Amino acid sequence: MGLIFFASALPDPGAPPGGLSDKGAHVVAYAALGGTLVRALARGRSASMTPARIAAAAVLATLYGLTDELHQRFVPGRTPDPLDVAADALGGIAGAVAVAVAARTWSSIRRSRLAHRRP
Questions:
Q1: Cα separation, 48 vs 42, whole angstroms
Q2: For 86-89, which contacts have Cβ atoms below 8 Å and span 24 or more sequence positions?
Q3: Quick one: pLDDT at residue 5?
Q4: Is the pLDDT of residue 78 over 80?
Q5: What secondary structure letter does DSSP report for 33?
Q6: Which of 1, 20, 37, 64 pairs as cysteine with 24 (C-beta 3.0–4.6 A)?
Q7: Can you give the pTM of this predicted structure?
Q8: Residue 83: how many CA atoms within 13 Å on its side-chain side?
């Protein structure tokens, strides 16, 4: 969250690195936030990454995106953009879902491997 806030406080950020569009950069940043939030809400336990926690992480990421856009009203050379909030929401949802699916998949693979090792 701090990195996102810092980046949004820059007066003229220029083009995102790596040829990403502005909206693509929002999706990537908020996917990281959504994934981090779902892990935090589930306390790192894959079994606790329920649909409710995934939704909560996505909502929190979106709300943070909204406040970040409002913050940009006060930064010289920056303007809030509703499409940025939409990109933030998309990223938050994608990140939360991806991390939950990856965690569940990894946990299932680990359990399967452990079950096959037992005599």
A1: 5
A2: 87/23, 87/24, 87/26, 87/27, 87/30, 88/26, 88/27, 88/29, 88/30, 88/61, 88/62, 88/64, 89/30, 89/58, 89/61, 89/62, 89/65
A3: 75
A4: yes
A5: H
A6: 20
A7: 0.82
A8: 5
